[in-house]
Amino acid sequence: MTASSVRPEEPTAVLGAIEEATGRLLRTAAAARPDRISDPSLLPGWTRGHVLAHVSRSAEAMIRILEGAREGVQADMYASAEARERDIEDGAGRAPEEQAADLEATAERLAEVVRTMPEEAWTFEIRHRSGRVFPAARVVWMRLAEVEYHHVDLDLGYTPGDWPAFFTGPELESLTTRFAADEELPPVLLRDTASGAEYRIGAAAGPAVTAQGSAGEILAWLSGRADGSRLTVHRGGTPVEEPAAVLPSLPPML
Q1: Among 45, 48, 153, 223, which residue's CB has the most CB atoms within a 10 Å radius?
Q2: What is the C-alpha radius of gyration for the chain, rounded to an integer number of angstroms?
Q3: Cα 98 to chain center, whole Å?
Q4: What element of type H or E holds 9?
Q5: Which residues form the Mycothiol-dependent maleylpyruvate isomerase metal-binding domain (predicted)?
């Protein structure tokens, strides 16, 4: 796929990207040694098994809200926060082949819901548990993000450098827009060294720090998958030796 062939607002095109991303994740999960599933992931407090169980359960959550959108009603992603955590915990200890089977089955069910969704239902407004409101069509891109981010979180060889350009571009736009008006964040100018694209975040007073790197490295920092140490950072025109010590702490993704 090319960077221009997948747009977040086009569910059918995004579904193809999801299926490719899910295939990569399935290969990683199936190849994992059983004794490594219980090792820590890159997400604090979660093992690799927790991450895999979450990806499966979040597919079911997205099925629920899309089926609600089909009927024109709001549906909760999860029965409760406690039920969400319990389901993830219950599934965390399974063997790699069980995790992979669950991932594949739930992904196929979600894909079928997307394929059979009436066109008019995609405009139904979803109220996310974070408080954000967006059209149902955006849920499909959310699934792509879940698969891509959490594949990295497994820490089994898939890195931000493996993210496709059609994913990093829209995600950079989305996260920098979210952080641009944050009055608690000091200003940072971000520059993609490959494309030359620039993004600004932070609305607090003060001179901007400049940070540059690949799109994947920038997105890894913005999404909490890296501390920014791989970025080249300048403050007042002078390069800094420890980028992670200069870059601000970012709010967690919801």
Answers
A1: 48
A2: 19
A3: 23
A4: none
A5: 19-154
Judged on CB neighbours under 10 Å (0-12, 13-18, 19+), 135 is middle
pLDDT in tens, 94-148: 999 999 999 999 999 999 999 999 999 999 999 887 778 999 999 999 999 999 9
Neighbours of 188 (CB within 10 A): 24
Full DSSP string of 52-97: HHHHHHHHHHHHHHHHHHHHT----SSS-HHHHHHHHHHHTT--HH
Residue showing tokens 């004794």:
35
CA distances from residue 86 to 17, 23, 100, 124, 158 in whole angstroms, order as listed: 30, 27, 20, 30, 27
Compute the Cα dihedral for 191, 251, 37, 105 and give only its sign.
Answer: negative
Distance CA 142, CA 156 (A): 22
**Residue 220: enclosing H or E segment and its boundaries?**
helix 215-222
pLDDT of residue 3: 47
Q: For the chain, which ranges sit under pLDDT 70?
A: 1-5, 254
